Amino acid sequence: MKAELKGTSKHITWGQLDDKDKFLRLLPGRKRLMDTIRMIAYRAETAMVGLITGPAVDSSDARRLLQNLFVTEADILPDPENEQLNIRVHSASRPAANRALVQLFEHLNKAEVKYPGTEMRLAYELGGYTSPKSAEGVR
To answer: Which one of 4, 30, 64, 132 has the largest count of C-beta atoms within 10 Å of its C-beta?
Structure first.
């Protein structure tokens, strides 16, 4: 049996696969498009990492924080009178993460980006978060 296993080919060529087992490959143009989208997303993530790194957050923590942000639930609240689309992101579990997100949102809000196809400006906020500065004045 060992001799038979040694004689068995370790690789199967595309032609040897049954039609039901053959998978669809991306055409070169589509692959190039997907690679371009991935590269743009990575560069955007890297730029945002640069906005929130500092003494309390290093680049690997910032990248992890952003990856968590990208899958976090958020409320989208249109405000047509003020031509604003409010994005309220749910608060993170750690205060340090909340402070970093608030810092990121300040940068994003200063950019005054308009939602594509509309005149509504994107406005980001962290739901349920009060900054330590505003909490001091409440006492």
So the answer is: 64
Amino acid, res. 26: L
Determine which of 26-30, 33-37, 65-69, 113-117 has the lowest per-residue pLDDT on average. 26-30
State the pLDDT confidence band at 133, using cuts at 50, 70 and 90: low
Is residue 127, in this structure, part of any structural domain at all? yes
**Which residue range forms the structural domain that includes residue 115?**
8-138
Q: Is the pTM of this model over 0.70?
A: no
Label residue 19 exposed, middle or buried (CB < 10 Å: 0-12, 13-18, 19+). exposed
Total number of domains constituting the chain: 1
- Type of residue at 109: N
Between helix 95-110 and helix 59-70 the angle, nearest 10°, is 80
